Amino acid sequence: MENNKDAGDEPPRSPMADPTESDPKLETKSETDSQPPPNEGGEDAESAEKKEETAEDVIDDPPLSTPLSLEKAHEDMDQFLETLKQKEEASVEMPVFLDKFLDLVEDKIARYDAGDDRADDSSLLEAVSRISSLMKTVQTQHQPEPLMNRIGSIQQRAMTYLEEDFRLLMEQYRNATESDPGGHDHKGKHVEEQPQEDSENAPEESELDFPGYSEETISSLKEIAGEMVAGGYTAECCQVYMTSRRNAFDDALQKLGFEKFSIDEVQKAHWETLSREMIPSWINTFKQCAAVYFPGERRLVDEVFADRPELAAGIFSNLCRGVVIQLLNFLEGTAMTKRAAEKLFKLLDMYETVRDVIPKMDELFSEEHVAEELKTELNLAKSRLGEATISIFGDFENNIKSDTGKTPVPGGAVHPVTRYVMNYLTTSGDYKETLEQVFKEHSKIERADSTSRPHGESQGQNGKEDEKAAASPFAAQVMRVMDLLDSYLDSKAKLYKDNCLTSFFMMNNGRYILQKIKGSIEMAQVMGDNWCRKRSSELRAYHKKYMRDTWHKVLESLKHEELTVNGKVDKPKLKERFKTFNALFDEIHRTQSSWVVKDGQLQSELRVSISAVIIPAYRAFLGKYAQVLDPGRQTEKYIKYQPEDIENYIDELFDGKPHQSIAKRKT
C-alpha cells in the first residue's frame, strides 16, 4: 500500500478516482485466510496471548447470509469509526462490510441520478457524514489508493447533491414571498405562504417576515452546511449561500424602490427627481436595512453556520458590506451635487439616517476590524454631508446679500426675502439638534466669504440669556442670518418716499419675523426671550411712528383751539377744519386701503388703535360744532362723515384692495 500525507484541521477535498483504474473490492479477510495455520500442538502462552490481542483488533463482519441495509451499515460504520478513535496504530485493517456500505451509498446516488424521489434526503445526509469521517481516516492511514479514490468519488457525487439541495433550500425565500398559497418546495412538501415584504411596514412587523425561511428549512440548511464544511466543501457551500442571499437582498432593495446608481449618475440626476423620489427611497432603504434586513441576515447566518461562528461572521460582513457600499455611493454622489439652499433639508435627512445607523452597525458587526472599517466609512460619509450643510448655509447668507433690487415691495407688504429667510430658518428649527451637532463637529470648514464677524460685535449686549442662546455654533449662525436680514430690510425700507410707508413696512416685516420665531419652539429657544422682548419693543416704536406720521395731521384738524373769537365760533375757520379733515381722511383711506397686512392680528390691532384715536376726537368735534353750520346744503358740504362712517372706512384699511375715493362714492 502507498502512504498518504497527513490531513490538516480543515478536511481536504477528496481525491478523484482514476477512470482508467479498476475498482477492486478489498478482501481483508482473504489475506488473513491465506496465512499458514499456526502450530496446533505447540503454542506457548505468549503466542496464545498475541493471538487473543489480534482477534480483538479485527472488526467482525455481519453474516454474509443477512442482507445489509443502509441503516444497518450506518450502525456498523459508527462502530467501526468509534473503534478507530481508540486505536493508535498508523494503519488499521478495513473490514469487509465497508465495501458493502460503499455499494449501498453508490446505489442510492445512482437512483437519484435516475430521477427517483429524493424525499428521504436524511439517509443521504447520514451517509455523507460517515463518508467524510471515513475519508479523514483513510487519508491519515496507509490504505490502498483504489479505496481512497473510490471513497473520494462517492463523496464528491454525494456533495454535488447536497450542494443542489442547499441551493434549493436557500431559494425558498422566494416561495415565502410569492402569492401562490399552495406552493411547494423542491421536495414536494407544502410551503406556508408568507406575506410579501412591505416597505411601509413598521420594522417590528416586517422583521417577522425576513428572511422568510421556516424553522424546518433553517434546520435543514444547518445540517447540510455542517456536512459540506466537514467534508471540505466550505467554498462551495459559502458560494451558494452568498449568491442566494445577494439575490434576496437585490429583491428586497427593488421592493423598497431603491435602484443601483453610480456616483456619476447621481450627480447628473435632476434635483427634483433626487429630492422627490430617489432620496426618500434611499432613506427608507437604509433604515429598513439597519432595522430589519441586516439583523435578519445576521440571525440567519448565525443559525445556518452555528458551528463555525468565524465563518458566519465573514459571510455576513461580505454580504452586508456590499449593500452598505451601494448606499454610501448614492450618498457621496448626492453630497457632491452643486450646492443650493433648497438642498439643505434633504441632506439633513440623509445625515440623520447615517448618524442613527452607525450604532446599529456596531452591534451587528462584532468583528473588530470589520466594525472599525465600516464605521470609518460611515463617519466619512456623515462628514461629507455635514460639510455640505455648512457650505449651504454660507451660500444662503450670500443669497441674501446678493439681492440688490431697487424696487420697493408694493403696499409695504412682507418682503419675499423675509418670507424666504424666515421659512428657511423655522424649517431649520425642526432640525435644531442635528444642526447643533453638524455645526459643532464640522464648523471648521465655514466659508471665509460668509458673514463671519462674531455675533457679539453686531448684537451688542443683549443680555445673558441671549448670550447663552448664542453660545452654540448653530445659534451664532442663526443670529448672523437675522442680523443680515435686518440690514437688508433697512435698505429696502429706504426705497419708500413716504415716511409713513417706511414705518409701516418695517412694522409689517418685523411682526412677521417675530411671529415666525415665536411659532417655532426650537427657534424661540435659539433666539431667546430677551431677543423677543427687544423685537417687540422695536415693533411698538414703528407702530407709534406710523401713527404719528399718518394721523397726527388728521388730529390737528380736529383741535378746538383758535376756532372761537370773542366767544363766537369763527365759521370760515370751522369750515376749513372740516374740509381739511375730509381731504386728509379721504386721501389716507384711498392710499392705505391698498397697503397689505396679511397678519390678521396686526391688521386688527392697527384698525383698533386708529379708531381709538380718530373716532372719539371726531365725535366730540362733530357734536360741538355741527349745529354751528346752517342746516341743508351747507351741512352736507362740510360734514361728509358720521362717526359710524369713519369706523367703517377704517375697517377697509390694509386689505390690499384699492377702494374708490370716498368723495366719488358720495357724488
Task: Detail the topology: elements first, then pairings.
Blueprint (H helix, E strand, L loop, with lengths): L27 H6 L11 H13 L12 H17 L10 H17 L7 H19 L5 H26 L1 H6 L25 H4 L8 H16 L3 H22 L7 H6 L2 H34 L4 H27 L8 H21 L3 H35 L13 H14 L2 H11 L12 H5 L4 H6 L3 H21 L5 H20 L2 H7 L1 H29 L6 E2 L2 E2 L1 H22 L7 H26 L7 H6 L4 H8 L11 H5 L1
Antiparallel strand pairs: 1-2
Function: Component of the exocyst complex.
Protein name: Exocyst subunit Exo70 family protein
Organism: Arachis hypogaea
Structural class computed from helices and strand pairing = mainly alpha
Output the strand order for the largest sheet.
1-2
CATH T-level topology of the largest domain: 5 helical Cullin repeat like
Number of helices: 28
Q: Any idea what the CATH architecture of the largest domain is? A: Up-down Bundle
Shape: rod-shaped
TL;DR?
The chain has 28 helices and two strands. The protein has 667 residues and is mainly α.
Description:
Strand 1 and strand 2 form a beta hairpin. Helix 6 (145-170) packs parallel to helix 10. The chain has helices spanning 28-33, 45-57, 70-86, 97-113, 121-139, 145-170, 172-177, 203-206, 215-230, 234-255, 263-268, 271-304, 309-335, 344-364, 368-402, 416-429, 432-442, 455-459, 464-469, 473-493, 499-518, 521-527, 529-557, 571-592, 600-625, 633-638, 643-650, 662-666; strands at 564-565, 568-569. The protein is built from 28 helices and 2 strands. The protein starts with 27 loop residues before the first helix and ends with a helix. The protein has 4 domains: 1-31 and 67-170, no CATH class; 203-391, Up-down Bundle (5 helical Cullin repeat like); 403-546, no CATH class; 558-666, Exocyst complex component Exo70 (Monooxygenase, Up-down Bundle). With 667 residues, the protein is mainly alpha-helical. InterPro entries: Cullin_repeat-like_dom_sf (IPR016159), Exo70 (IPR004140), Exo70_C (IPR046364). Residues 194-208 have a biased composition (Acidic residues).
